[in-house]
């Protein structure tokens, strides 16, 4: 049986921090599905389709990574895909409390699917999509924060 992990997020847009977790997950699991979910507490800059395209372009060198989207509950999506795990990145202690709540609820709904946390590489510990959007909005250089395809998409959005 192949080991499948779902790497969920809003990815608005994908950053090098996200890619760090995806790449490391792809080296552990046979298959990783990067699943775009809409966070209802956020107002996205990019459409789901745009985010999927940016992720596909940013991960095209990873043959065991695919991209999908879902509007439902993560744990239901993971079960539907026969995933063994949900892969989440942690940047700092501030992420932990939120992630613990989500993980506890997911375990309550389906205890067969594990959640695995990876600490983000220290060089990306400050990085979030929100910060990238804010910096890009003011025409600052984001080339060391996001892949080139994302940098261009941000420039186009903020013309």
Automatic annotation (TrEMBL):
<dbReference type="GO" id="GO:0005737">
    <property type="term" value="C:cytoplasm"/>
</dbReference>
<keyword id="KW-0173">Coenzyme A biosynthesis</keyword>
<feature type="site" description="Transition state stabilizer">
    <location>
        <position position="18"/>
    </location>
</feature>
<comment type="similarity">
    <text>Belongs to the bacterial CoaD family.</text>
</comment>
<feature type="binding site">
    <location>
        <begin position="124"/>
        <end position="130"/>
    </location>
    <ligand>
        <name>ATP</name>
    </ligand>
</feature>
<comment type="pathway">
    <text>Cofactor biosynthesis; coenzyme A biosynthesis; CoA from (R)-pantothenate: step 4/5.</text>
</comment>
<keyword id="KW-0963">Cytoplasm</keyword>
<feature type="binding site">
    <location>
        <position position="10"/>
    </location>
    <ligand>
        <name>substrate</name>
    </ligand>
</feature>
<comment type="subunit">
    <text>Homohexamer.</text>
</comment>
<feature type="binding site">
    <location>
        <position position="88"/>
    </location>
    <ligand>
        <name>substrate</name>
    </ligand>
</feature>
<dbReference type="InterPro" id="IPR014729">
    <property type="entry name" value="Rossmann-like_a/b/a_fold"/>
</dbReference>
<keyword id="KW-0067">ATP-binding</keyword>
<feature type="binding site">
    <location>
        <begin position="89"/>
        <end position="91"/>
    </location>
    <ligand>
        <name>ATP</name>
    </ligand>
</feature>
<feature type="binding site">
    <location>
        <position position="42"/>
    </location>
    <ligand>
        <name>substrate</name>
    </ligand>
</feature>
<feature type="domain" description="Cytidyltransferase-like">
    <location>
        <begin position="6"/>
        <end position="134"/>
    </location>
</feature>
<dbReference type="InterPro" id="IPR001980">
    <property type="entry name" value="PPAT"/>
</dbReference>
<dbReference type="InterPro" id="IPR004821">
    <property type="entry name" value="Cyt_trans-like"/>
</dbReference>
<dbReference type="GO" id="GO:0004595">
    <property type="term" value="F:pantetheine-phosphate adenylyltransferase activity"/>
</dbReference>
<dbReference type="GO" id="GO:0015937">
    <property type="term" value="P:coenzyme A biosynthetic process"/>
</dbReference>
<keyword id="KW-0460">Magnesium</keyword>
<dbReference type="Pfam" id="PF01467">
    <property type="entry name" value="CTP_transf_like"/>
</dbReference>
<keyword id="KW-0547">Nucleotide-binding</keyword>
<dbReference type="GO" id="GO:0005524">
    <property type="term" value="F:ATP binding"/>
</dbReference>
<keyword id="KW-0808">Transferase</keyword>
<feature type="binding site">
    <location>
        <position position="18"/>
    </location>
    <ligand>
        <name>ATP</name>
    </ligand>
</feature>
<protein>
    <recommendedName>
        <fullName>Phosphopantetheine adenylyltransferase</fullName>
        <ecNumber>2.7.7.3</ecNumber>
    </recommendedName>
</protein>
<feature type="binding site">
    <location>
        <begin position="10"/>
        <end position="11"/>
    </location>
    <ligand>
        <name>ATP</name>
    </ligand>
</feature>
<keyword id="KW-0548">Nucleotidyltransferase</keyword>
<feature type="binding site">
    <location>
        <position position="74"/>
    </location>
    <ligand>
        <name>substrate</name>
    </ligand>
</feature>
<comment type="function">
    <text>Reversibly transfers an adenylyl group from ATP to 4'-phosphopantetheine, yielding dephospho-CoA (dPCoA) and pyrophosphate.</text>
</comment>
<feature type="binding site">
    <location>
        <position position="99"/>
    </location>
    <ligand>
        <name>ATP</name>
    </ligand>
</feature>
């Amino acid at each position: 049986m192949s080991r499948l992990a779902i790497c969920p997020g809003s990815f608005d847009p994908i950053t090098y921090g996200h890619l760090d977790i995806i790449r490391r997950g792809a080296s552990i699991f046979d298959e990783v599905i990067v699943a775009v979910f809409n966070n209802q507490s956020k107002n996205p800059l990019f459409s789901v389709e745009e985010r999927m395209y940016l992720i596909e372009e940013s991960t095209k060198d990873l043959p065991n990574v695919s991209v999908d989207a879902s509007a439902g509950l993560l744990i239901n999506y993971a079960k539907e895909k026969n995933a063994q795990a949900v892969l989440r990145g942690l940047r700092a202690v501030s992420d932990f409390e939120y992630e613990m709540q989500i993980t506890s609820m997911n375990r309550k709904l389906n205890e067969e699917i594990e959640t695995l946390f990876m600490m983000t590489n220290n060089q990306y510990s400050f990085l979030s999509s929100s910060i990238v959007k804010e910096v890009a909005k003011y025409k600052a250089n984001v080339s060391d924060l996001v892949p080139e395809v994302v940098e261009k998409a941000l420039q186009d959005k903020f013309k």
